[in-house]
Specification:
By secondary structure, the chain is an all-alpha fold. The radius of gyration is 16 Å and the shape is elongated.
Length: 110
């Protein structure tokens, strides 16, 4: 699960950064505010890569997905991209757990 989820979070890191660049052009929000919010979200996406196996890591990932969708209030395209990444996050968690279970069965049988 960790590999799939971390890949999704790294993709989000770049999308958040590019969305920050777009937000600077589309809105009158001060650049410092845009980069403070984008920077925190980017940092969170990187930190979550290491927190995935800890309690609450996946739930924080869901919170990031909701925040990404909510960023559509500033950059409308983010409604779509946030939904895509939420679907990728679900698939990473769901299928990642199945892969982990299959690996555990193989390791127990070997």
């Amino acid at each position: 699960m960790r590999t799939l989820c971390a890949s999704t979070l790294i993709g989000e890191f770049f999308v958040i950064g590019f969305a920050g660049l777009v937000a600077m052009q589309l809105t009158d929000i001060p650049r410092t505010t845009i980069w403070l919010v984008s920077g925190i979200a980017m940092l969170l996406s990187l930190l979550l890569c290491g927190m995935l196996t800890r309690p609450g890591g996946v739930q924080l990932g869901w919170a990031l997905q909701l925040a990404l969708i909510a960023s559509g209030l500033v950059v409308p395209t983010m409604y779509f991209l946030g939904a895509v990444f939420a679907a990728l996050w679900w698939a990473s968690v769901h299928y990642g757990r199945k892969v982990d279970e299959a690996r555990a069965r193989v390791a127990a049988g070997a």
